[in-house]
Write a structure and sequence with these properties.
35% strand; 102 residues; Immunoglobulin-like; 25% helix; two-stranded antiparallel sheet
Length: 102
């Protein structure tokens, strides 16, 4: 009878730990910034370097390069106001836009 009681306590402890860890895993405090770089005619532009610059923190993300479809994605982005900086290996190519992550 003692073994059965000990086994029930161990199972109850495991269930308690599992049940208390579920809400913490569901709390998400970051977002994703996605976009597509296009030209004035709407054609996609692959190979563009994209950087997120935080307007309040003064920090910048690591640069990423747009895919063949012109798409880019930054994950795990903290809520803030960002400037999206775009550049290409041409003489006059830097463009920026503002994005909000909430």
């Amino acid at each position: 009878m003692i073994l059965r009681s000990e086994g029930c306590r161990w199972i109850a402890a495991c269930v308690l730990v599992f049940a208390t860890s579920i809400p913490a895993a569901a709390q998400v405090t970051t977002g994703t910034v996605v976009g597509t770089v296009v030209d004035q005619q709407g054609g996609v532009i692959p190979g563009v370097t994209v950087v997120l610059a935080s307007e309040t923190q003064g920090t910048k993300s690591a640069p990423i390069v747009t895919a063949a479809t012109g798409d880019f994605q930054f994950t795990n982005v903290a809520p803030d106001t960002y400037t999206i900086e775009l550049s290409m290996p041409t003489p006059h190519s830097t463009v920026s836009s503002t994005a909000h992550s909430t």
